[in-house]
Amino acid sequence: MEFIDLKTQYRRVKPSVDARIARVLEQGAYVMGPEVGELEQVLARYCGSRHCVTVASGTDALLIALMALEIGRGDEVITSPFTFIASAEVIALVGATPVFVDIDPRTYNLDPGRLEAAITPRTKAVIPVSLYGQCADFDAINEIAGRYALPVIEDAAQSFGATYQGRKSSALSLVGATSFFPSKPLGAYGDGGALFTDDDRLAQAMREIRLHGQDRRYHHPRLGLTGRLDSIQAAVLLAKMEVFDDEVAARARLADRYSELLREAFADEPAAVRTPYVAPLNTCVYAQYTIEVEHRDAFVARMTALGVPTAVHYPVPLHRQPVFEYLGLPPGRFPVAEAAAHRVVSLPMHPYLTEADQVRVVRAAKQAVG
Ligand SMILES: Cc1ncc(COP(=O)(O)O)c(C=O)c1O
């Protein structure tokens, strides 16, 4: 059993992927070819955004958003301590200071109730992360940020395809940034990412930054990057968009089935496993199906011995990462994130899981809780 099975998906989309890649190879426009513009139109329409700007990775998407907003030295940017390193890394990369706000224990997303207390005159943006495929509480976050005129950048790397109050992740705030890393809900066959906004000026700035800050050939009013998405990755993503709605539905159905099987298996000890909570306003795209168990590390070791792969997203909250030691944030500073980091474990999840796979995973989990 694989944690994420991309090969079964490939067999499904192979005719379209192969044909589209062959067209790129034959036409020879390997960078900024027609597939890139076509994909941007498809994705913008999908999210209900005026603009989509594809980029080289989810990390570049966040970085380019911060650069376009001219955030840098002396500025503070608020984000979650319970996320992948990239969410805070980009803040430090532009020379600003990451400021962490603890999470909601049920959704694992930035707790809007703690946001206002973290805002200072130096705060220049907020980056809520929509973790595991579920959007943060954007109405509450946008309302607080709006009172301080702070731009909100959604880190939608794990939540592309999810909805919040019927609106698509990536289109819930001034700008949304997603990732097309292969294991993400919408994954390329290499690195990729995209930015979404309704703001024309911001979209133009982000387009320029992904191309070395160029507004016309060899004329550079600002600094930028080699931040483009390859034509071949755009071709792959166009093919995968043909089945994406179906895959999002499958993920939700499989997650419900996992929760049902776990409830049945642990009916005699319901406190032993906590299944995912999805807030009433949300649909989750289950980039991860993440449970909580008491003795997580022993659980992981036993699952491995039983032949069931698991993953821990994430064992160390960002304020405890060596690279952020300079922030001087001690253990215990973000107790909800720290408790989650000790307890969470993700089970195999992808749209092509079978009932037999799920039964096997849950049987193993019952044994592994021990
Ligand atoms: C929450 C989060 N933010 C940002 C990123 C960065 O995306 P990428 O790997 O495409 O640079 C990831 C990817 O793992 C992520 O999970």
Structure notes:
The protein has 370 residues and is of the alpha/beta class. 39% of the residues lie in helices and 13% in strands. It has ten helices and 13 strands. The strands form four sheets. A four-stranded mixed beta sheet has the order 1-9-8-5, sandwiched between helices. Strand 6 and strand 7 form a beta hairpin. It is globular. The two termini are 22 Å apart. The structure holds pyridoxal-5'-phosphate (PLP). Pyridoxal-5'-phosphate (PLP) is lined by residues 57-59, 83-84, 86-87, 129, 155, 157-158, 179, 181, 191, 193. The site of pyridoxal-5'-phosphate has 15 residues, from helix 3 and helix 4.
Give the percentage of residues in beta strands. Answer: 5-15%
Termini Cα gap: 22 Å
Low-confidence stretches: none
Helix-residue proportion: 25-40%
The Cα radius of gyration reads 21 Å
| Associated small molecules | pyridoxal-5'-phosphate
Q: Largest sheet, if any?
A: 4 strands, mixed
Mean of pLDDT? 98
Q: Give the strand tally.
A: 13
**What order do the helices and strands follow?**
HHEHEHEEHEEEEEHHEEEHHEH
Count of separate DSSP helical elements: 10
Give me a quick take on this structure.
With 370 residues, this protein is an alpha/beta fold. It has helices spanning 6-27, 34-47, 58-68, 86-93, 138-147, 200-209, 231-265, 296-305, 335-343, 355-369, and strands spanning 51-55, 76-79, 97-100, 123-127, 153-155, 163-164, 167-168, 175-179, 193-197, 273-274, 282-283, 289-293, 344-347. The strands form four sheets. The protein has a four-stranded mixed beta sheet with strand order 1-9-8-5, sandwiched between helices. The chain has a three-stranded parallel beta sheet with strand order 3-2-4, covered by helices on one side. The chain has a three-stranded antiparallel beta sheet with strand order 7-6-11, with no helix packed on it.
